[in-house]
Amino acid sequence: MENKGKLFFFCGKMGAGKSTKSRTVATVNNAILISEDDWLSAHYPSQIQTFDDYIQYSNLIKPFVKSHVQNLLSIGVNVVMDFPANTVKQRSWFVSLCSEVNSDYELWYLALTDEQCLSQIAMRRVEQPERSMFDTEAVFHHVTQYFEAPTASEGLNLVAVESIE
Fold first, then answer.
1. How much is the average pLDDT of 93-104?
2. Dihedral angle at the C-alpha atoms of 67, 11, 133, 127, nearest 10 degrees?
3. Which among 10, 13, 14 has a CA at the least distance from the CA of 124?
4. Sign of torsion, CA 34 69 54 163?
């Protein structure tokens, strides 16, 4: 079998540390890091003002991202995607992306408590004041209502992390 790259992607509530962990995983695995936040801000600057805006623009970039990532995996490049895999539907998209090009993957599940996530979000507001509009407890609770923890029935190649490093 030809050498395929491996995809790494992340599941965890808002504030769990997905972006931080994605940078570490990219470095350790000599992988290219593709950040949804970077793609969205580059393609739709100042256009994402609400959660619904985020959903709309995130869905617009996915076909292009999928094709790009599949091309990289097909030539043996490891890829870390800092995109949420926080619902069964989102995780299914990542798995199909890999299966279509016969590539391996790891889903990193950052299983932190609400309290740990809210603490991280509070620190992030101080460190990145430009994010303070979205990094609130109210947004956390709104987004968390859609969160679906991975289950064994999904048959995922899972790496679980239960503490902040």
1. 96
2. -100
3. 14
4. negative
Report the C-alpha gap between 143 and 51 in whole angstroms.
8
Domain 6-161: which CATH class? alpha beta
In the chain, domain spans: 6-161
Asked if residue 22 has pLDDT above 80, the reply is yes
Cα angle vertex 111, ends 106, 142, to 5°?
110
Helices of type H across the chain: 18-28, 36-43, 51-74, 88-100, 114-127, 137-144
Per-residue pLDDT tens for 76-98?
A: 999 999 999 999 999 999 999 99
Residue 161: closest CA among 114, 121, 105, 108: 108
Q: Tokens at residue 110, please? A: 């950052």
- The pLDDT score that the predictor gives to residue 164 is 66
Q: At what angle do helices 114-127 and 137-144 cross, to 10 degrees?
A: 140
Beta bridge partners of 79: 7, 32
